[in-house]
Structure formats: structure tokens, C-alpha cells
Specification:
Layout lengths: L24 E2 L11 H9 L14 H11 L6 E4 L1 H13 L6 E4 L6 H7 L4 E4 L19 E4 L11 H9 L6 E4 L20 E6 L12 E5 L1 H11 L9 H12 L1 H24 L2 E2 L7 E6 L4 H10 L2 E2 L11 E5 L3 H18 L1
Parallel strand pairs: 1-11, 3-4, 5-6, 6-7
Antiparallel strand pairs: 2-8, 7-8, 9-10, 10-12
Helix pairs in contact: 1-7, 2-7, 3-6
Bound molecules: 4'-deoxy-4'-aminopyridoxal-5'-phosphate (PMP).
């Protein structure tokens, strides 16, 4: 058909499954296994639905203000969106408009190449080293921008602040986006570098460490100049990206810092315990600082483990892609969920190995 010649054709990102099946153990999309802060739950129960008749605040001011106060920056340095996916997509659209390729790791969040294709941004991937670390020297070539997660996904490995700064320093003429979706589980944030680098954008999310994947709240912090350009694009696209309940509940989540800290430290404790148990079972993995572990087994193929777990109603993530096709990514759940995972693996490996 003639009209099809003018369709924007893209291969979409494939999100992890959200099976609607009672009793499953869901360790496939890095959600938080614990509920949102009590204040969020209370406010959600008391929400005035009459207010839903009105458009939400297009500037998301209360949430922007709460984030600015929490992170010690000016409100003009904060931008919020519908999950960090929305923030990242807006940032790609706003900042990556060069004819030079943008750079990101070969093993990384698999949405980056999808956005690059969608927005027709040329891109080049830089291979992680044998230990899954970013090689900062790769980011010294001419480029139209840089983006990488820290900690990286799906490896979980965190780079030091020195490595991050080395990359930014080598790229002062383009925008550098550091995707910190998992930073609250033991990574080091690049927020402290913002004073030095006007071209640095730090992206974070409420989906993992603040237990709010279902509300879709993400944000980024950068110089006022960067945030100004982002807002111009956002307001040229959709004035009301963030709905009213998400704006209100997001503020409540930020207020309860003690709850946030207890949830993240609980997940870190569980992660460290699971690392020891997986090692005993013959798994190897990069030393994750995120809320997941990217594990491969010394003798049993990743795909076989993924399928066996799935049959047992334990969902983890698997990619049939070069370099990563022998590993499964296991989200850290509750201690009880992880006990069931480990118990299953023990029995399965005794038979399969
Ligand atoms: N960045 C990375 C590295 C991720 O793994 C994810 C989760 N899929 C996101 C960003 C997006 O998360 P959200 O849109 O829920 O904030």
C-alpha cells in the first residue's frame, strides 16, 4: 500500500512480561518487592477523586520542589516525566541531534537503540571489557552524545565516580546522560558533578527504590540550561505528561526518607545473601550494586535455567542476544521469594548438573 511508504517503521522495545497469574514469583522486571511508603498508601486511600476533573499542574511544581529540596538543587534544575523511560526519551529527542553517532555500551539497557532508531539518531556501541566494565577510553572518539546506566543493566556493575567523570570530561561538547535507575542500591551518583558540568544530565526513577513502578514517576537533574531545553521539548509534545495522582503520591514518597532507606538496605542485604548462595550453587556473576543479579552457571546454559524457572512459576529475565545469552537476570525479591528460588535451583541443578 502506498501510504505504508510514509509510516515510521520501528522495532519496539520488548518489556518484561507482566503475567496475570496468582502465586507466581515475579523476579523479571526489577520491581520493588515491598509496598510504597505508608504515607503514599494513606494518601492514595484518601484521594479526592473530584480533582480528577481538572487537568494536572503542567509544571508538576510540588513534585519538582520536593525533589529539588531532597537533592539540594534548584527547582529549575529538575524535570519529571512518566517514568524515567519518558525522561530518557525526551532527553534523546532534545539533546541528540548531531550527525555524529551517540555512544553507549554494547551490553546495556536495550531501550537506547530503540529510541535512537525511533528518533533517527545515529549510534555506535562501545564493547564492555571482559569483566563487564565500561572502558572510558572508548568514549574519546568523536560523537553526538553519550548515555550509559550506572549501575549498568543488566550486569548490575557500578562504575566509580572517577570513571564517570573521566567520560564527562572527555565529552564537554555534547550532552552526557547518566541513567541512575539503580543507583539507590549501592552505586555512587554523579549528582555531585553537576556543579562542574553544565552538559551532564542525571536520570533517576521511583520505579525501583521507591516501590512505584505502577505510578510511572521518573526525573532528571541537570543544569538550568539543560532542563530549560527539555521543558521546551516536553511542552511542544504534551503539556500534561504526569497525571494528578502520580504528582501527589510522588511527593509523599520523597517525604518518607526513613522508609526509603529501610527498603533499599533490606534489598541490599537480601542481594548479598543471595550472591553467596548462588556462588555455592556454581553460578558466576558481576558483583551487582543494583536490585538484580546477572548470573550464569558454570555448566548449565542460561536458557535452560530460564525455562525451568518459568515452568516452576518463577519469572526471571533472559535475552537471546550475543554476549548475554548464557545468563539470567534475577530481580531481588523478598527473603521468602529468594528462598523459594534458591530451593528450586538446588533441586534443579542436582538433576541437570
Ligand atoms: N533505565 C534503566 C537502566 C532501566 O533498567 C529501566 C527499567 N526498565 C529504566 C531506565 C526505566 O524505568 P522507569 O521508566 O520505570 O523509570
Amino acid at each position: 500500500m502506498e501510504w505504508e511508504n510514509n509510516v515510521r517503521k520501528v522495532v519496539p522495545y520488548v518489556a518484561g512480561e507482566q503475567p496475570n497469574k496468582p502465586g507466581i514469583i515475579k523476579l523479571n522486571t526489577n520491581e520493588c518487592p515491598y509496598p510504597p511508603a505508608p504515607g503514599v498508601q494513606k494518601l492514595a486511600a484518601q484521594m479526592d477523586c473530584g480533582a480528577l476533573r481538572l487537568y494536572p499542574d503542567p509544571n508538576t511544581a510540588p513534585l519538582v520542589d520536593a525533589l529539588a529540596e531532597y537533592y539540594g538543587v534548584e527547582p529549575g534544575q529538575v524535570f519529571v516525566g512518566v517514568g524515567s523511560d519518558d525522561v530518557l526519551a525526551m532527553a534523546f529527542m532534545t539533546f541528540f541531534n548531531s550527525s555524529q553517532p551517540i555512544l553507549f555500551p554494547d551490553v546495556t539497557y536495550s531501550f537506547y537503540d530503540v529510541w535512537a532508531e525511533l528518533f533517527r539518531i545515529p549510534y555506535r556501541t562501545c564493547a564492555l571489557d571482559h569483566d563487564w566494565h565500561i572502558r572510558p577510553e572508548d568514549y574519546r572518539q568523536p560523537n553526538g552524545g553519550v548515555v550509559f546506566p550506572n549501575p549498568n543493566a543488566p550486569t548490575g556493575l557500578a562504575e566509580s565516580l572517577e570513571t564517570v567523570e573521566e567520560i564527562i570530561q572527555a565529552n564537554r561538547d555534547v550532552v552526557v546522560i547518566v541513567d541512575e535507575a539503580y543507583v539507590d542500591f549501592g552505586g555512587v551518583s554523579a549528582l555531585s558533578l553537576l556543579e562542574k558540568y553544565e552538559n551532564l544530565l542525571v536520570v533517576q526513577t521511583f520505579s525501583k527504590s521507591r516501590s512505584m513502578a505502577g505510578l510511572r514517576v521518573g526525573f532528571c537533574i541537570g543544569s538550568k540550561k539543560l532542563i530549560g531545553y527539555l521543558n521546551d521539548v516536553k511542552f511542544s509534545f504534551n503539556s500534561y505528561t504526569m497525571n494528578y495522582p502520580s504528582q501527589l503520591l510522588g511527593v509523599e514518597a520523597i517525604r518518607d526518607d526513613a522508609y526509603f532507606k529501610s527498603v533499599t538496605s533490606k534489598i541490599v542485604d537480601t542481594r548479598e545473601r543471595v550472591k553467596r548462595e548462588l556462588t555455592e550453587l556454581g553460578f558466576v556473576f558481576p558483583d551487582s550494586r543494583a536490585n538484580f543479579i546477572f548470573a550464569s552457571h558454570k555448566t548449565v546454559p542460561g536458557e535452560k535455567i530460564f525455562k525451568a524457572l518459568r515452568e516452576a512459576d518463577i519469572y526471571v529475565r533472559y535475552w537471546n542476544k550475543p554476549r548475554v545469552d548464557n545468563s539470567v537476570r534475577i530481580t531481588i525479591g523478598t527473603d521468602q521469594q529468594m528462598d523459594r528460588l534458591i530451593a528450586f535451583l538446588k533441586g534443579f541443578l542436582a538433576e541437570a548438573g
